[in-house]
Specification:
The chain is mostly beta strands. The protein has one domain: Thrombin, subunit H, CATH 2.40.10. The chain is built from four helices and 24 strands. A hairpin with a 4-residue loop joins strand 6 and strand 7.
């Protein structure tokens, strides 16, 4: 296990002559072992969940190809852009997404509030499903030619909140609040199952959790083996999740029920710089670091319950999981 000796944050603004990427969010970190896995190596039940986790892209990095009715993603090499050391995981993969999100109804996603700051930002964002490494024989090659049926635009922000971010006077995040955005897409999502949320939360220290998202804008990753450290802060909980900038907005799931418990929003430093000048992931003990902050999904309960009560449609999702309460159901919004 590596121990972080320097606290150097690598700036996550990526600029070239032809395209620009900005990875949103406060930095995150690796706790203990690096448990991130690509799509091709995920268990089948996790793949089904990952299919409904969306990547957020600036529209300048997504171009439409009418000849194939698909969108082409503009990316950069992870290792080259961040000057990574040779042994850094995934360094030969590509990056491009700036945040993550999850489908919670046929036309609605949730993400971090700092990912979508206003209607203008929403209008300039493409929501892309299927950015993944699917072939174990080509572990550095992601799908970047995306069918039009997997690319969506913003219709409007339904609800948004962002608490204060960590500051030098408050680096641990004490007193920070929830951070979330609920986004209505331009049309119903095809071929994806809305994910279930645990709106009746009763979190406990030690509860097992996992995360799915797009760390540093990489293709979708699944990271398990984490637990809740502190369930008590108002509006969020703290867990030792292996996440980075770009994971902001990622759904965090209870490992037993597979229900969404929260939205990943804040964390520790992503990278450290080595004495030889290249950068590596910031790795701490599983109980080290400040922990990663996750907006409690129950913060959104009153909104979703009111929408469900007024909705004329509902979605039945065929996902194997224990029976859950009405508040853990899926939602469909008419606007």
């Amino acid at each position: 296990m590596k121990t972080a000796k320097l606290k150097v944050i690598i700036a996550a603004t990526l600029i070239t002559a032809t395209s620009s990427f900005s990875i949103a969010g406060v930095s995150k970190v690796i706790y203990g072992d690096d448990n991130r896995r690509d799509y091709y190596s995920m268990p089948e039940d996790i793949k089904a969940i990952a299919d409904s986790v969306v990547s957020l892209w600036d529209k300048t990095n997504v171009s439409f190809d009418p000849s194939s009715n698909s969108y082409i993603l503009s990316t950069q090499k992870f290792g080259e852009r961040l000057n990574l050391c040779d042994d850094e995981p995934f360094k030969d993969q590509t990056i491009g997404a700036f945040c993550s999100g999850s489908l919670v109804s046929e036309d609605t996603i949730i993400t971090a509030g700092h990912c979508i700051t206003n209607e203008s930002k929403c209008a300039s964002t493409y929501f892309v499903f299927g950015y993944a490494v699917n072939d174990k024989n080509n572990p550095d090659t992601a799908v970047t030619n995306i069918p039009a049926s997997n690319v969506y635009k913003c219709s409007k922000i339904l609800k948004r909140n962002i608490g204060p971010e960590p500051t030098p006077d408050n680096p641990s995040g004490t007193g920070l609040g929830p951070d979330y955005a609920i986004i209505k897409l331009d049309r119903r999502v095809e071929g994806k199952k809305p994910l279930r949320m645990n709106l009746n939360q009763n979190l406990s220290k030690g509860d097992p959790v996992f995360v799915i998202g797009y760390p540093v804008g990489l293709p979708v990753k699944f990271a398990d083996g984490s637990t809740i450290r502190d369930p008590l802060p108002v509006g969020y909980f703290v867990a030792n999740l292996d996440t980075y900038g770009g994971n902001s907005g990622s759904p965090v799931f209870n490992s037993n029920t597979k229900l969404i418990e929260g939205i990943l929003v804040r964390g520790d430093n992503d990278f450290i710089q080595t004495p030889v000048g290249c950068s590596v992931s910031n790795v701490v003990d599983s109980d080290g670091g400040r922990g990663e902050d996750v907006t409690k999904i129950s913060v959104l309960a009153s909104y979703f319950n009111s929408i469900q009560s007024n909705s004329v449609r509902s979605i039945s999702v065929n996902v194997e999981m224990p029976e859950v309460s009405r508040s853990a159901a899926n939602f469909s919004f008419d606007r």
